[in-house]
Amino acid sequence: MSAAHRPGPLRAAILSLPLVWTLAFLLVPYLIIFTISFYTRKYPTFLPDFQFGNYLIIFEDPQYYQVLWRTAKIALVVALLATLLSYPLAYVLVFKIRSARLRAALYLAVIVPLWVSYLLRAYIWKTILGSEGILNSFLVTLGLLDGPSPLFLYNQFAMVVTLTYIFVPFMVMPIYTALEKIPRSLLEASGDLGVGPLRSFLAITLPLSMPGVIAGVTFTFCLTFGDFVAPLLVGGPDGQMIANVIASQFGATLNWPLGSALSIVMLLVVLAVLSLSARLDRTGRVELA
Prior knowledge:
MetI-like fold; 2 strands; 75% helix
């Protein structure tokens, strides 16, 4: 690199700040957790060691691999429901709303909940689904229930509803962006050739919007997989997820080695999902090209 193109000291320092931040607050903590995951617990503390007992416990003890499966299942269901809700919404915003001002206002209405505290948004659903909540009161008023039912809260149903509501904006945004980038000339040409709206959607719109769908599913799955607030508020006994188990290992149980091993397994699952998402995105772009 010539002296003319070499960045100055100030610019180099500014550019290096994100790298230093990432190393100090992301990579180093992960390395510490990875190291502790091989330690041996000796109550009330733990000792440096190199053994795989903590990882073996995760896959030998049913309570741990079952909670992993439960977390993955809930994350998949939330991602699916969020897709089914978000795609039609994004499609209507992009292709059916002619007024740019109205489209921007409706899109903003989808994004505005992200400005509200996550805890407040989750607590709202606890209020809605509770025994004295809006849903129970409405059903009792209609005569569909004789009295308030506890079946709507403190279960996996409540968790799926709450998490879907919370993470729908993360699904709408990438799908909306992908749909906006589709050239209108392709759809017009399809119509000029006599292709019907449904066939045009399946042949043009849906394939070209798949990068947005993949990105949205990835966001939603990973965010749900790592969530621990919603299970605390609306989950109940059968709604505990992997993040709650990790928190208890570092807190009440004081088993940091096992908690670290669970964290690493959780990280590997998320990295696998990100890798699969990137591969599907590349494959889709190559096929479309």
